[in-house]
Structure formats: C-alpha cells, structure tokens
Design a protein that fits this description.
The structure holds 2 protein chains of 2 kinds.
Chain A lengths: L2 H4 L5 H18 L7 H14 L1 H7 L1 H4 L10 H31 L7 H45 L1 H6 L3 H20 L2 H31 L5 H28 L10 H10 L1
Helix pairs in contact in A: 2-3, 2-7, 3-4, 3-6, 7-9, 7-10
Chain B lengths: L7 H25 L9 E7 L2 E6 L15 E4 L10 E3 L2 E2 H7 L4 E5 L12 H20 L4 E6 L1 H12 L4 E7 L11 H6 L4 H8 L4 H9 L3 H12 L6 H15 L6 H13 L2 H4 L3 E2 L2 E2 L9 E6 L7 H4 L2 H4 L5 E6 L5 H4 L1 H16 L5
Classes of the chains: A mainly alpha, B alpha/beta.
C-alpha cells in the first residue's frame, strides 16, 4: 500500500469527518475574530499537499488537519506559499493599520472633504466585510447540515446506502442534500434580510468609491458619470417635448389615415430594394 | 454506516478516470471554439434606438395554403438575449413555428447602455412594443397581430394587450410572471429588502452580470459545480458539447437592464404586485388585465424555478378572455425552449391553437 493510500479515508464516515473538519476550519477562518485563521488554514492545506509524507506521518498535528496529502511539485507549492505570505501581509496591514488610522482621523482643514470621503469609504468597506462574513457562516452551515443529512440517510435508508457505489454517487447525493437545505435557508426571512442588508451595504460602498473616483476625474477635467446622467436626462426631456409638439401638430392638422399595404406589395418593394 | 466501505482502489481508479475525461473534454471544448447561435434567416424590418425588429424568412418548401394568415410577434424579455428562441437548427422554437406555417417576427432589444438609463416601463410598452406592432401591421398587411410574450416580455405583452386590445388578435403568454407574490417566488423574496431607489441611483443601469449572480445563487451547488462535472460525461459527443457551449453563452450573455425601467418593473410589478391588484398605470392610463378579451393561451413550465407555475396561472381569473387555454409543459424555464421534448410539442401546440383562431 502506498503512502497516499494509507492516508485516504477508509469509510464514508471517515470522509464525512474529514469534510466536517475542513468546514469547521473554513468557518473559523471567516470569523472576524480570527484574522489569522485563513493563513493558518492555507498553510495547513499546503502542508497537506507537500507535507510531505514524512511530516504527515511524524507530525500528529499535520495528520489531524483533515487533508490527505497528494504528490505535488515542491516548486509549485513554494510559489503558492510565497504568494500567500505576500497577500497575507498586505491584507493584514490594511486591516489593522490603514482602517484603524482612518477611523481615528478627524476631518480638518483644506482636505477635510477628501478625508471624510475616504473615512466614509473605509466605514462602508468594514460594513460590507462584516455582512459578508455573516453570509459565509450561513453558507458553511448549509454544507455542514448537508453532511449531517447524508450521514442520517446513509444510516437509516438502505436504498440510499446501496445507491452510493462510487465517489460520484456520493457527490451527487451531497449536491442534492445541499440544494434542499440551501433552498430552505434561501426562502427564510433571516437569509433574505441578510442578503438585502449586504446588497444595500455594497451599494453604499460603490457610491463612496464613485464619489472619490469622480473627485479625481474632475481634477483632470474629465467627464464624470454624474455629468453624463445629467446630459442624458436633459436629452430625454427634450425628446419628450419634441414628441409632444409633434403629437399636438398632428392632432391640429390630421393627416389622411394610411392604409396598410398588402403583403404582396410589400414583398415587391423588398424585392426591388 | 461505519461499516460502509469506501473502496480505496475503486476511488483511486474513479478519480483517475474522471481526470482523464476532464483532460479529453477540455481538449474537445478547445477544438470546438466559438459556436454560432441564432442562424435562421431573417431580415430587419424596423429599428429604433437599440431595438431591431426582425422578420424570419418562411421556408420555401412550405405550401402557401399552410400559412397562418395573422403574423406572430415574439416579445422577448430584457434579461438575456432572444437568440435562445433559435439556439441551433434542431433546437429552435422559431424554426418550429416557421415549419408550422407561422409568419414570425421577433424583437431584439439590443444592449442598453448609459444613454438608456432613463427609459421607462411606458417606453417599452407604449413606444417600442407599440411601434413594432405598427411596423408589422404595415409589413404584413394585417390589421391585427398575434403576440407571444416570453417571461418578462410576456408581462410587457399583457400590459400592451390590456391597453391596446384592438391590435391583438390572439395572445400567448409563455412562462410569464403575473402574480409576483406567491410563496414559491424566491426572486421576489430576495428583492424585498433591497433599496431599489438606491440601487438604480448608484449603478444607473443594472449590470447583467449582477442578475446572473442572482440566478446562479438560486441553485448554487448545481449551477456552479454539478453542471460542469456532468458535462464531462459527454466528452465524446461533440454535438452535446456544442449545445452546452451555446447554452453557456446564452446564459451569461446578459444585457444590462435600463435603470429606470428596472426600478419601475421591480417596484410596481414585483414588490407592489400592481398587475394583480389592477393599480398599474402607464402614460396616465390604468392597465387592467380584465380589458384583455382576445383568445389567450397561457403556457408555463411545471418545474420552473424562476417563474413558478403559481406566478403564471392566476392569469386565468384576471382576464376576461372567453377563450382561455393553458398548457403546462413538463420541464423547466429553459427546457421549454431547448429540450428535445419541447421541439416535438411546443411549436405544434402553438400552431394548432393559432390555426383554429386564424379565420377572418
């Protein structure tokens, strides 16, 4: 038996346990109170990939990570790891320093309006981020409940158990259960309200981004979306006035009603053109 | 369950076999490249702003006496592109209708841009749709037109038929939402807490990609994962792969929605359900569905997750058509146009219904 086989799940229950462990780690990673959890999760994942077999066998923590190791090029793993470290560092700095700094800055002096605009932007970003995390937690819960449901079905329904003859069968069962549980959630007031709140928060963020973008465009005397909107609105009002004038003129000087042309005549006209 | 075996050797061979299929499938997809859609021959007979009205060419082999006299206008939705009606030669509602002797016209709404953000519901019903019907009356030499509305285009068609009943000979509503407030309507529930005024004020036109995300979000596990896993079951069937690519293009080729039109549609029709309550007004005139007296065929899909049957069927009690028929197609919102069963059944049903009501 190869090393990879020795770390593969030996039963459906083991597979379910692995998936649950993975979802718990993802849930932890999306929790606002655990800012480092994502990088830990990814590190754990990468360790699972190249973990090497030796590390996986000797390190109980790595074995408990829930990932079966596969043989992947060490070079590729290192590229991912470098990228992860760089992204983690940048994101961490943005989270802990940038946002915190702007939240404390008072709007003063000649740049007061710009400072306020940036503060509003940061506040909107934080609001979106918090709501996205809430939504993520709900969606992870759906997947956990889907696994529970699969387990229950396999335990209690011989027909379902006998029907799972391959990993594909198990996958299809998982999709089916996850969709059913998600559908119940998607129709719930809680989900609809949260999704609406997130949508509205995203709109506030977008509006504040546009506010800043338009300020910059104005510095270079470039047209903004707001100016174009104003032009389009004026154009529409002018078209309506022209249509009303034409309608008034037609009703004061009625033209003879036009007879509809025959199909044969139309066909001839088209043939000529 | 603990004893249920998870045969490791079987799992390994299954994984390897799937990886090989994915590899073959990716190669086959790459070889197919771009796909053609909407290839039935047609002529543009009218255009206005970004709208183009097409007339399809009748097959030459069709005997003149098999023709249905009154022309049929298909009014498609603003969401997605109307070429779904002619996806490919063997999956085409339009070709099916042409082969049944129907003179088919279709409105292509185009791709609205920033200049269209102030277009209203009234513009679409009383200007664009009205002008298209006038153009067809002249082109076909007929006083009246048969109108077939699809999905949101069906809702627009109902508004038009209620306001201009004298122009409509027969009306067909296809997977058309009428009552937006039924318990099964997920999109209505999701829109409940969205600030539509802020949405349109902020975004102007509503991006098609945003709507796509909503539609995919209705069945996320099937539509982001299982559908693509299943695709690789057909890696050796080029025709199926091509059909899949055409569908994929159609699904994600989504025009932006003109902002004001979207706001009015969502507020008046979806949130306030004005069509059912009889409180909708366009251009100062009340839109009353009970003004519709023409023969009416209501076609809906029994497994439609976008427009559930409960949203379509109330049409029967809301109109005063003395000649109301309905047809529940056993399929979904898209299968009703492109499935093999739909090709066999839907055009014939429509043609037979129209033919029986075509005499002058």
């Amino acid at each position: 038996m190869s090393d990879s086989e020795s770390n593969s799940p030996s039963s459906l229950q083991d597979w379910l346990a692995q998936q649950r462990a993975l979802l718990k780690q993802i849930a932890l990673a999306t929790d606002a109170a655990q800012p480092q959890a994502w990088s830990k999760l990814m590190e754990s994942y990468l360790r699972g990939l190249d973990g090497g077999r030796a590390e996986g066998q000797n390190n109980p923590a790595a074995q408990g990570s829930g990932f079966a190791p596969f043989a992947v090029g060490a070079e590729l793993i290192q590229i991912w790891r470098n990228g992860l470290n760089a992204a983690g560092g940048a994101a961490g700095a943005a989270d802990s320093n940038f946002a915190e700094l702007f939240s404390r800055l008072p709007g003063l002096g000649i740049t007061r309006e710009q400072t306020q605009a940036w503060r509003d932007l940061v506040a909107a970003q934080a609001e979106c981020h918090a709501l996205e995390q809430k939504l993520s937690q709900l969606l992870i819960q759906v997947q956990i409940e889907a696994l529970d449901s699969i387990e229950e079905q396999l335990d209690q329904e011989a027909g379902v158990r006998d029907g799972v003859k391959s990993f594909r069968d198990l996958y299809n069962l998982w999709v089916d259960r996850a969709e059913r549980i998600y559908s119940q959630l998607a129709h719930s007031d809680e989900f609809c309200k949260l999704q609406g709140d997130l949508g509205n928060a995203t709109l506030r963020l977008r509006a504040r981004q546009q506010n800043i973008a338009e300020f910059l465009l104005k510095q270079f005397d470039l047209p903004t979306r707001s100016e174009l909107n104003s032009v389009h609105l004026q154009l529409r009002q002018l078209r309506e006035k022209v249509a009303a004038l034409e309608s008034a003129r037609t009703s004061s000087h009625p033209r003879k009603p036009t007879k509809v042309a025959s199909r044969a005549k139309n066909a001839k006209t088209r043939a000529r053109t | 369950m603990s004893g249920t075996p998870f045969d490791q050797l079987h799992f390994a061979s299954e994984a390897e076999e799937f990886a090989q299929r994915v590899s073959r499938g990716l190669g086959a997809l790459a070889r197919i490249g771009e796909v053609e859609i909407g290839t039935a021959a047609k002529d543009a007979i009218y255009s206005e702003d970004k709208l183009v009205l097409y007339r399809y060419r009748t097959p030459e082999a069709l005997a003149a006496n098999a023709q249905i006299r009154v022309p049929l206008l298909i009014c498609y939705a603003l969401v997605n592109r109307p070429y779904m009606m002619d996806l490919q030669p063997d999956r085409s509602l339009i070709r099916g209708l042409l082969n049944q002797g129907i003179d088919v016209y279709l409105i292509d709404w185009g791709y609205p841009d920033g200049a269209d953000r102030y277009l209203t519901l009234n513009d679409y019903v009383n200007r664009y749709l009205h002008n298209c019907i006038e153009a067809i009356r002249k082109d076909a030499g007929q006083e009246q037109v048969n109108l077939l509305g699809v999905c949101q285009g069906g809702t627009l068609s109902l508004c038009y038929a209620a306001l201009h009943p004298e122009r409509i000979r027969n009306l067909i509503a296809m997977v058309t939402p009428v009552d937006f407030r039924t318990p099964e309507n997920l999109l209505t529930k999701w829109s409940e807490h969205i600030d539509l005024d802020a949405l349109v004020a902020t975004l102007g036109n509503v991006p098609g990609s945003m709507l796509n995300a909503l539609f995919v979000g209705m069945q996320p596990f099937r539509l982001t994962s299982q559908k693509y896993v299943d695709l690789f079951d057909h890696v050796d069937n080029q025709r199926m792969l091509e059909t899949f690519l055409r569908m994929e293009k159609w699904i994600f080729d989504s025009p932006d929605q003109p902002g004001e039109m979207f706001r009015q549609f969502m507020t008046w029709l979806v949130k306030e359900n004005r069509l059912v309550k009889g409180t909708l007004e366009l251009d100062g005139r009340a839109v009353k569905l009970d003004e519709i007296r023409s023969p009416l065929l209501n076609i809906y899909a029994s497994q439609d997750h976008l427009v559930p049957p409960s949203a379509s069927t109330p049409l029967e009690r809301l109109t005063r058509s003395a000649d109301y028929s309905s047809y529940a197609f056993p399929g979904g919102h898209i299968g009703i146009y492109v499935s093999a069963a739909a090709q066999r059944e839907v055009p014939i049903r429509i043609a037979n219904w129209l033919r029986a009501r075509d005499s002058s």
